[in-house]
Write the structure tokens for this entry.
Amino acid sequence: MTELQPTTQPHPAEGRRSQIFQQLRLEKVTRSFGGTIALSGLDLTIQSGEFIALLGPSGCGKSTALNCVAGLLPLTDGSIWLDQQRIDLMPPERRGFGMVFQNYALFPHLTVRRNVGFGLVMRRMSKKEVRRRVDAALDLVQLKAFGDQLPGRLSGGQQQRVAIARAIVVEPSVILMDEPLSNLDAKLRLEMRTEIKRIHRDLQRTTIYVTHDQDEALSLADRIVVLNEGRTLQIGSPEELYTRPANLQVARFMGYRNILELDLERVEQQRVFLAGPDFRLEGIACAELAGRRAFAAIRPDDFLVTINEAGSRPTGARNSILGQAEIVEYCGRDYLVDIATSSGLLLHARTQRRVEPGARVHLEVPEERVLAFSAA
Amino acid sequence: MGFFVLNVLALIAAVVVDSFATTWLGTWLPAGFTGRWYGSAWTEFQLDNVLMVTVEVVFAVVAISLLLGIPAAYAMARRTFRFKRVVLLLFVLPLLVPPMTYGIPLATVLYSLHLAGTINGVILANLVPAVPFVILVMTPYIEQIDPKLEAAARVFGAGTFRLFLHVLVPLLAPGILAAGLLVLVRTIGMFELTFLTAGPDSQTLVVALYYTVFAAGVRSAQSIDAMAVIYMVATLIWLLIALRFVNPTQLVTRVRQ
Amino acid sequence: MSTSSRPAIKLPDRTLLLLVPGIVIVLTLFLYPFLFGFILSFLSHQGPNLGNYTKFFSTPFLSETIWTTLWISLPATLINIGFALPVAFVTRRHRFQRALTAILVIPITLGTVLIAEGLLTYLGPQGWLNRLLLMLHISTSPVHLTHNYWGVFLSLVVSGFPFAYLLLLSYLTGIDPALPQAAATLGASPWRRFIHIYLPLLIPGLAIAFCLSFVQAFSVFPSAVLLGAPAGPTRVISIAAYQAAFEDYDYPMASAIAMVMAGVQLLVVALALTSRNLFYRGPTTGGKG
């Protein structure tokens, strides 16, 4: 166990670059495949020990970025730096990173122990040292009993742990993970998420984690890079992304399901006043607003839903909307309600209290939870 | 590698150049070029008859092996049953055992049935590797077709025959084309089985070529090479067509452990 | 149980009937002749006995064909596999791989008869190869490469190398590319990736490629007749079998030779496959799909 705690001294047998660095820097990293650009000008500076998530839909360039850092794909343009050392021209075996592959890529002909020890053997460590470190790593992922089995006989979750152990046992300066949880079922995914979080807390290794699942990114990462069609949409902490998405695309990705195109009444510094057909909203400008229209983005759980028994008329008050519940989905902890306003606009809201389909409801939303983006 | 390819190309070029040579003795290139060897080869070796036999044999083998092989491949792809491994072995063996080994006993049997020396005998002998080959090529094609499509067709009222005709055959068309072309190319080039079972009137092009090369002293080298070029053209045209639809590695049987 | 309810009888699956024509073909045209030949091989003029086999093994003219054939086919097979492995490895991701395989498939498609005729022209004393050797002063007199051992050997390389290459290429491309990549991120150099990942995963494919290549080389016939010296150094076992059947019309003897041929092949294949079992065999992908 102790061997896997962060060490200040590189192992003498390593004889390679020191583990310790200040910054991993990606400068305008670009990769195209026969004319189509998969990743365009990614700029990112990662501090030692940080957990970075690359988030985006499939085909957004996040795996391309990871493979570029790993050295498995040459860059078309740009460079990658480890402090003052340029590493993007270095072959993968000399970078000293650890990688967890999407399908685990465990060597089918080697036992679990020899899979985990592979990187140590490549570093020409003594047999005794290899055994000690492999034992420690298997302990960490709770797989001591399976050391002599071939990986083909393990379950998905166990294979996943072997893949993680194999990556961390070499004490890499950077750990790269390519959608490591995507092949697991929902329950196991949550368990392994906690496991990865725990290992990162214990070892404090710089980690770059690729995923298409915003929950994974939000729960694991110190900072998230949102990518789409090869372009960087936003880089920020989970809180920043959640509360202040930089644009509509990120907002959609962060679960802002209500995107409403409304009339722009006026802007007062950060405050924005918008008008719909039968309600008026006050919100926060998240971008330079101009013209006569703007988009408002609201998360379903930011609505406060109350039953409007009296059937009162719209008051014209800001951030107060009347409507009728159309579809009610029970989600266990709460209800997801589709609400139609009198003008026919459809809104999505979450509420703890049961709402009957057809019920008249009243929606309220705090003005700091209404984000306005330009219509252009 | 380049050396190997170069030598193969040179080998082919040598045959082609010689077939057009007037005389070619002790020089890099022949003294002159002429097309007359093709004419003399054609009449000398009765190529019209040989080509007719070749076409008959090849197309009969392709048609029969597809007709018998595709249904069998369907059963192999869709069903698991006892002794499936035995059946699979039965289909793999004729492709692994070289034709020279089983060709002699097969020829003996065909002689005792008075089939050897006839076109039918040649066709039968060539079916031995062709049918299993179609089965092995087609099985993965059928496996990758979603069984739900068949279920859907049945739900909407298609019987087995119409299921094959309207659902499977259109979906399998690329695979059938590939298997057919591969069998065709392999059958044109199949020397041993045809050689062991053919009589004077049922020789295919390869066997006729073998006999002329064997009796080389009697004929001029150029007319032998002219015949070799005719054979090459007949084979390579189909190979070129086949390569448009199949991966070259498919011509070689791959066995899984 | 009520009398009206019929017991659930398991009906035979009618789909399996589709197998019948295929199985009949293989049984009657492959297995039956083999068994027929096997029984026939024990029949000599005096009734059932081992006469044909004793005659084969006691007549050097016949029994030596086994060694002659092995002496040609084993080196040729080893050379073919030995060269095909590195070439397949280097070209497995090559841009021109498809073009290359298309060219290499030509000798396989043309078949041994045409290769023999081509080599006769190309390698002969007047052929281009000897002209080149003389011109470059590599040799002072034409090298004899036809009508002897080397002619047959070279024909086996020309037809066997592409075969081995295509086979190994298809096994190589079946290895999950993530495995060598994973090894690379763990610090394995290209050479050690080959030794620790590719080679162990390729052993089953190599064994099968060896068996198939050998079995083909062992049954060499047309080129041994046309390119070799069929009366002497290249009198391979196929020639002996052919002569027994079609020149002496001694079918029992021909069948016996064919059985010996099959037996030797089986022996070598069994040896190769047993040695394969000492190594890893299983899937060549690294995890759940």
